[in-house]
Automatic annotation (TrEMBL):
Gene3D superfamilies noted in UniProt: N-terminal domain of the delta subunit of the F1F0-ATP synthase (1.10.520.20)
Family indicated by similarity: Belongs to the ATPase delta chain family.
Role description: F(1)F(0) ATP synthase produces ATP from ADP in the presence of a proton or sodium gradient. F-type ATPases consist of two structural domains, F(1) containing the extramembraneous catalytic core and F(0) containing the membrane proton channel, linked together by a central stalk and a peripheral stalk. During catalysis, ATP synthesis in the catalytic domain of F(1) is coupled via a rotary mechanism of the central stalk subunits to proton translocation.
Protein's organism: gamma proteobacterium HTCC2207
Signal sequence annotation: none
Keywords from the named record: ATP synthesis, Cell membrane, CF(1), Hydrogen ion transport, Hydrolase, Ion transport, Membrane, Transport
PROSITE patterns hit by this protein: ATPASE_DELTA
InterPro entries in the record: ATP_synth_OSCP/delta_N_sf, ATPase_OSCP/d_CS, ATPase_OSCP/dsu
Protein name (Swiss-Prot/TrEMBL): ATP synthase subunit delta
Compartments (UniProt record): Cell membrane; Membrane
Topology of the protein relative to the lipid bilayer: Peripheral membrane protein
Single annotated GO MF: proton-transporting ATP synthase activity, rotational mechanism
Amino acid sequence: MAELSTLARPYAKAAFEFAVTAGDLQGWSQSLAIAGSVAQQSNVVRLLASPSVTAEQQAQALIEICGDALNDQGKNFLTILSENRRLQLLPDISQQFDVLKANREKAVDVEVTAAHELDAEQQQKLSDALSTKLERKVNMQVRLDKNLLGGAVIRAGDTVIDGSIRGRLAKLAESLHS
């Protein structure tokens, strides 16, 4: 899939630069997320892969499905993608756009998987500590996983901090077997 992300990169950068100039990063992010989700639906995937449907018809169908989620510039963007036969890249374009947006806003999405419910104070302390360590604003999502036994696993982009008891036991077992 590295090839798809490589093909998507210039489109994501172009959309990002336009959104920065227009001062509408959030609007573009939402529009691309919706278009990317639509492009992943099985019926739409078949439509985009069909050689009997013209690029113009593909763009028009996608624009109609997205409806009011797209402004005129978003519709033009989809038209350009369709002319270049790149509509299937929309999920990758959306993802790369969001990475560029997060870097510009100095923000990072963090997923915390905990063994037990974290109260508001614990979440705030964790968020503050991660914000200091990562030097970014932290957007934290917390979910429970009773299989962890205790502790938590934190994922921030490519960084994974495994502070779970299950992870520690796995490391211990690995060191005993080596």
